[in-house]
Amino acid sequence: MRVDLGHTRDVTDVTEAIHTRLWRAGELEAEDFPVEQISDHLASDDCLVWVDVCNPTHQNMQVLAGELGLHPAAVEDALAHSERAKATRYAGYTFLTAYGTTLRSSGLDGPDTSALQLGRVSMFVFPRGIVTVRPGDHFSMDEVVRRWDASGDLLALGVGALVYAVLDVVVDSHFDAVQGLDDTIEGLEDGLFDDGAVSKEIQRRTYRVRKDLVQLRRVVLPMRELVNTVLRHRQDLHASSDLDPWFDDLYDHVLRASEWTESLRDMISAIFETNLSLQDTRMNTVMKQLTAWAAIIAVPTAVTGFFGQNVPYLGFGRPLGVYLSVGIIVGAAGLLYAQFKKRGWL
Fold this sequence. Notes:
59% helix; alpha+beta; disordered N terminus; 7 strands; 11 helices; seven-stranded mixed beta sheet
């Protein structure tokens, strides 16, 4: 499995791009050891190895692929800019890709800027270690390492504990994102029936949250298949049976996150439609008011126009005519106002 890495410069470049860790019996033994030792440690029965590659280049991934015997298709998937969450089995290892999520609080206030940020992490899972590949620093391994350091007893169970911690952090980030979007949707619901709210602002924020939910759904839903594949083929990952309750709980969390995301999708669609319906209702109310006032104003216009004819009429040339016209205007307009008010048009 070990290969010649070639020139010293190539090894140095790769080592600088890679962070390594070595455990024995759940206890941390070494960090940042040279890349050329990775295959030796992976071949040792009592070792547990983690290799992290952040911002990989094609050159150092090729060197690492030669050292570990990685399939070119898996290397290509790890370097791809956009790849769906999935689990693929190869001879001697399993390749996993998942997306962590971060909901930026600053994005919640702006109607146009997306608040959801994705961070991809790929894993090559070997019998005694994993290699994580991150195309950027959007997915931080700090929380994963903290959980590993706090769970030495789990690490003693083998590589399954490493895989579980990474996937658990990913799923927890999904929950945080869903919770943040849920709170944002509740704020939108409160603003729907607020007469002082700006309808256009609600529309823009609703559209932005809807886009974030679509993006979140694309990374949350495939996690069911990914974790289910890990559960069905956990023996291929050399996961101890003592980890079964942990993986079962992880799968339950994945299902809850998926169901929550689907329910939020229905809620944001309902808010979008309700906002449109409320706009139509407000428009109808305005049209009713305009119609009512137009009818009221039409009465004095009709009366004054009639009495302005150059023909004799009741009270023509006398004060009675003025009193009579004013009385008709006031009486008819008052009657119309009372009727429109009773119907709720005014």
